[in-house]
Recover the amino acids of this structure.
């Protein structure tokens, strides 16, 4: 399988992800859930067999607070 991005590569979301595929990190449940939207930065966490990416979304301090499932065409190298 040929992929554009590699594991742990920094990426930027080009579209708002489907809310059905957003999973908030459990350690941040005391913080209010920030909506995940286009323009946010993340890191490739896993490349799935179907060619999609499991992206770890990072906050301004570099901490992970959510995971989203994204297709390659909706990501851009950061």
């Amino acid at each position: 399988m040929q992929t554009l991005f590699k594991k742990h590569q920094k990426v930027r979301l080009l579209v708002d992800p489907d809310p059905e595929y957003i999973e908030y990190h459990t350690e941040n449940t005391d913080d209010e859930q920030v909506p995940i939207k286009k323009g946010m930065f993340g890191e490739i966490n896993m490349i799935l067999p179907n060619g999609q990416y499991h992206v770890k979304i990072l906050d301004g301090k570099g901490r992970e607070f959510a995971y989203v499932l994204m297709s390659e065409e909706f990501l851009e190298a950061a």
